[in-house]
Each structure stands twice: as structure tokens, then as C-alpha cells.
Design brief:
single chain; alpha+beta; six-stranded mixed β-sheet; globular
């Protein structure tokens, strides 16, 4: 199924249906369109939802169900700081439009950026100039695919914002099965670390990324074993949707905090940093899911910025407080920039007896 979306000057509004279709499987296109229409037209009746794993006695073939849930808002100081930051990100886009300095450097990491009407899609790391080898980029993520409710929300928000972009805007939208929140990079594409258990990352850090070596089989095994142990010792977090944000960097985001006084994700990040002192220095410090990335560095214009900002406010009002409690994390040797495509190991949270599964 294609995963990449572009707005061609001659097609305009027809791209809304195409965007939704590309973000969902063929079997669920109609359901996603209906869900998007329902969310947009029934805001007065919309309640926050909690996305949880269905019981075996209930929907045995679904991994998520929806139920009304009261939202107490961010509780911890960290959650309050994140919520404030998400608000500032939204305000920055509303006031300033896109930031070309944040978008321009990434253009070389995508195909389809030079020809008018061509759809952008991320390059594989082996297609970089100069290339990175298989296994150079490794990360731990929270997948969103355990809950059809959350996936439907993400696809509906994406389709709604897509239709508000000016004609001709180049945009890449993440595939439905690739929605995630990054927890930790043991090795980044801009800062590869073959052995993050060593303080120097197992490499000469003065070397350009493409000249740094890849992990040995023994180093990769040790790294994966440590990640498995840490995930097995981590309880299931309960994420809470705080805000839908269009950032000035071009990325449309679902932003999250944790429910109550929990800080499971931050605690896991701390333990990962302790276990991997030589991991890449650039790390995620908030909890967010990227839905689409605008790749045209030029301004969208006041009308589009106002419409997109209003759509994000509307979605936030409907969805704030939505809960998601993932049961697994994925440890990935990523092969394509930003998409989490690659060798995936599925790790069960809080269960040392659960065997890892490869996907």
C-alpha cells in the first residue's frame, strides 16, 4: 500500500480522499472517512475517549475500545511543562508560519523534492549521500497500532489538515502502521554510535557519520539484550493526549503527557541513558507522534495558517484527555528516514517471561 502523499497543483480537493486512503488499509477507508465526518460535525456530543486493549470476552479481534473518560489534565510538574511547551509550539506556528531553516536541511533526505507535482518520500539510509549502512540507526518506540481508536483519530486529523494545505504543497504523511512516539535512540542518523554502552559510543566521534563503523554482531546482541531487560522491567504507561499541534518545523503532531503522577516514559529514558552512556546525544525529551511533515519550505500564507491552527484547536478540544496504554514497545533497526521501517523487535512491557517477537 502506498504511504506517501503529495498535493499536486491540478488536483486540489481530491487529495483529501487520497490522503485518507493512503493512511488506512483498503478495508477501512470508508470507516475512516465516516469517522472524520462524524468528529467534525458532532463536537458538541463528542466525549473524550480512552483507548485500551479489549478483553478476550469482548472484542476478541480488536486491540482497542472506546469509553468516556474524565480528564484531570496534566498533574506532574513535568507534564505541566510539556503541556505549556506544546501550547507555545502551536502559538509559534500561528504567529510565524513555517520555519524554513528547520525544513530546508531535510530536503536532501527525501525523494521527489525537485520535480513539480512529484510526491516526496523518505530516502533509505543506504541512499544517503554518502550512505549509511544497515544497522546504523536504532531506536525504541511506542507504537500506536495497538488501538484502532487512536489510529482512527490520527488518520482523521491528518486528512483534515491535509485539505487545508495550499495547492502544490509538498507533504509526506506517515503510514497508518508507522504512527509512534520515539522513546530513545541508541544511534541517530546524524550521530551513529556502534556501541552505545561505551562512553565514546565505540567510535571516533570526530568522524563524519558515514565513516563510522557499524556494530559488530556481539555489540548488537548486547545492546538488544539490555533494551529487552529494561522494557521488561517497565510498567505499562497510560498516555494522555494533550494537544494537536502543527509546528513551525512543518510537522503535524499528536502531543502527549502521562496520566496522574506517573512518569513511566521519562523514567525509562533515564535508565536507557544510564545503560547507554555513549548513545547519540540528541534525544526526544517530550512524547509526540508525527502525523505528516510539510516539506515545502516556503510560507503557507496567513489564510492557510489560520485555518490549520483553528483545525488543531478544534481537534484538541474534542480529543484532549484521550488515553492510550500500550502493552508493547518496538526496538527497530531503521532502514528509512523517520518511518520506523526496518527490522522490528516487539517487546512486552512489564513481563520478563514474554518472548520478543520479530516483525
Amino acid at each position: 500500500m502506498p504511504r506517501h502523499i503529495g498535493l499536486r497543483p491540478s488536483r486540489g480537493r481530491r487529495m483529501v480522499n487520497l490522503a485518507t486512503g493512503l493512511l488506512a488499509t483498503a478495508a477501512t477507508v470508508g470507516a475512516l472517512l465516516a469517522a472524520s465526518t462524524w468528529f467534525l460535525r458532532h463536537s458538541s456530543r463528542q466525549k473524550n475517549v480512552v483507548a485500551v486493549r479489549a478483553s478476550e470476552e469482548g472484542h476478541q479481534h480488536a486491540n482497542g475500545v472506546a469509553a468516556a473518560e474524565d480528564d484531570t489534565g496534566p498533574v506532574t510538574q513535568e507534564a505541566k511543562e510539556w503541556a505549556a511547551l506544546y501550547g507555545k509550539m502551536a502559538d509559534e506556528f500561528a504567529a510565524t508560519d513555517l520555519n524554513p531553516k528547520a525544513i530546508e536541511p531535510l530536503k536532501s533526505w527525501f525523494h521527489g523534492m525537485n520535480a513539480e507535482g512529484e510526491t516526496p518520500w523518505p530516502r533509505k539510509y543506504t541512499e544517503f549521500e554518502p550512505p549509511l549502512g544497515l544497522g546504523a540507526v536504532r531506536l525504541l518506540v511506542i507504537p500506536l497500532d495497538e488501538s484502532p481508536v487512536v489510529l482512527r483519530i490520527a488518520a482523521s486529523v491528518t486528512a483534515d489538515v491535509m485539505r487545508l494545505l495550499p495547492e502544490g504543497t509538498k507533504v509526506f504523511a506517515n503510514a497508518r502502521g508507522n504512527y509512534h512516539c520515539t522513546v530513545f535512540h541508541t544511534s541517530q542518523p546524524t550521530d551513529p554510535r556502534p556501541d552505545p554502552t561505551r562512553p565514546d559510543g565505540g567510535t571516533d566521534l570526530s568522524l563524519e557519520p558515514s565513516r563510522r563503523r557499524l556494530p559488530t554482531a556481539a555489540e548488537w546482541k548486547r545492546e538488544a539484550d539490555i533494551v529487552r531487560q529494561l522494557v521488561a522491567a517497565t510498567p505499562v504507561p497510560v498516555l494522555r493526549l494533550e494537544r494537536v499541534v502543527q509546528a513551525s518545523t512543518g510537522v503535524l503532531l499528536l502531543t502527549w503527557t502521562e496520566v496522574g503522577d506517573s512518569s513511566v516514559v521519562s523514567d525509562l529514558r533515564r535508565r536507557l541513558r544510564e545503560a547507554f552512556p555513549g548513545a547519540s546525544t540528541k534525544q526526544a525529551t517530550i512524547i509526540h507522534s508525527s502525523l505528516l511533515r510539510v516539506m515545502s519550505p516556503g510560507p503557507l500564507g496567513r489564510e492557510a495558517v489560520a485555518a490549520i491552527s483553528e483545525a488543531c484547536r478544534r481537534w484538541t478540544a474534542k480529543l484532549r484527555g484521550t488515553r492510550y496504554n500500550p502493552r508493547t514497545l518496538w526496538f527497530i533497526r531503521e532502514t528509512e528516514f523517520s518511518t520506523i521501517e526496518g527490522d522490528r523487535e516487539v517487546l512486552t512491557l512489564g513481563d520478563a517471561a514474554a518472548p520478543p517477537r520479530h516483525w
